[in-house]
Each structure stands twice: as structure tokens, then as C-alpha cells.
Amino acid sequence: MTIEEHKGEFSISTDPERLDVPMIHRFLTQSYWAEGISMDIVERSVRGSICFGVYHQATQVGFARVVTDRATFAYLGDVFVLDVYRGRGLAKWLMSVIVKHPELQGLRRFLLATRDAGQLYRQFGFKSLAQPERFLEIHQQGLYLRP
Ligand SMILES: CC(C)(COP(=O)(O)OP(=O)(O)OC[C@H]1O[C@@H](n2cnc3c(N)ncnc32)[C@H](O)[C@@H]1OP(=O)(O)O)[C@@H](O)C(=O)NCCC(=O)NCCS
To answer: Going by C-beta distance under 8 Å and a sequence separation of 6 or more, which residues neighbour residue 105?
Structure first.
């Protein structure tokens, strides 16, 4: 299922063929959460996710992906808008498209992690973990920076 939405010169699409994977890699490999990530791992992560591209005409300027079974659970990650396109509501529009995606309805749990953008996601129903003591993780901090 491919979703496409338009607002003036901007669009959001889940068509994997439209993704600018080198641009996504360039951003993520310098991000605070995936610093040093390789092109190969970005390509694999894109193949295994519902990916949302934000486009200014034909140019990709934003991204997010959702890892999901399309029934009970989803994890939102790798959300970004390129610097020069920030502050004009693109991430909020992107979030509105993600939360209403037909394959992401009726989920028992939709998770994400963020350092400082919680106020963005709270506007779309995400809340701090009610019982964080019930969650466990294997988190390999700095994994992609290791030799
Ligand atoms: C976070 C990011 C995607 C926001 O993109 P954007 O298109 O500029 O965002 P919008 O214009 O749609 O507005 C974002 C909303 O979230 C709020 N917000 C909360 N935390 C924020 C943060 N850390 N950065 C930007 N906006 C934030 C803004 O105040 C705004 O809400 P408001 O209009 O009610 O004030 C963008 O700044 C970005 O790519 N940052 C670098 C990567 C990153 O940190 N991604 C998030 C990882 S969890």
C-alpha cells in the first residue's frame, strides 16, 4: 500500500522507489542516535520498514520510518527534516500522516525514543512510559563508531 499526500510544493510518500537513500545515510550517519551508521545498514533498515519520505517537488527533504508487524506493534525511528526546511510544520504534517496510516491502526503499542523532541510527538498522542520498570532493552550505544 502506497500513501501519497500533497500540500503546495511539498508531498509525503511511502513509495520506497522515491527514497533518496544516500541523503538518508548522509543525515543519519551524523545524527546523535545513529552516528557512524553504514550505508549497508541504512539500506537494510529501509527495506524492513514502512518509510515516509517528505519531498519538496522532486527533492527529498525529510524522512521517518516505522518498524511494525502492521497489526499490534510499531516503533517509530529516524525522524528528521533537513535543516533549511525546518520550522514550517513539515514534521508535524509527517507525524499526522504516520499516525493515520491505514496499516498502523489499532496497534496495542506504538513506541519511540527521543532526546529532546518529545513535545513534537506528544501532540500526536505519544506519552512517557507509564510503567518504565516493565520495559527492558538491549541498547548498544555507539555501536556504529566501534572499529
Ligand atoms: C525534530 C524535527 C524533525 C522537527 O522538524 P520541523 O519540520 O522543523 O518541525 P515542525 O515545524 O513540524 O514543528 C515541530 C514541533 O515540535 C516541537 N518540538 C519539540 N521538540 C522539538 C525539537 N527538538 N526540535 C524541533 N521541534 C521540536 C516544535 O516546537 C513544534 O511544535 P509547535 O509548532 O507546536 O511549537 C527537526 O528539527 C529535525 O530534523 N531535527 C534533527 C533530527 C532530530 O532530532 N529528529 C528527532 C529525533 S527523535
So the answer is: none
For residue range 112-121, list pLDDT tens digits in order.
999 999 999 9
Instruction: Report how far apart, in Å, the C-alpha atoms of 109 and of each of 11, 15, 67, 72 are.
Output: 27, 25, 12, 7
Quote the cell numbers at residue 56.
519538496
Q: Which atom of ligand 1 is nearest to the CA of 32?
A: 44
Element (H, E) at 23: helix 21-28
114 lines ligand 1 (CB under 6 A): yes
**pTM for the whole structure:** 0.98
CA of 100 to the centre of ligand 1 (A): 19
**Digit-coded pLDDT (tens) for 58-87:** 999 999 999 999 999 999 999 999 999 999
The ligand 1 atom nearest the CA atom of 82: 39
Distance 147 CA to ligand 1 centre (A): 32
Residues above pLDDT 70, as percent of the chain: 100
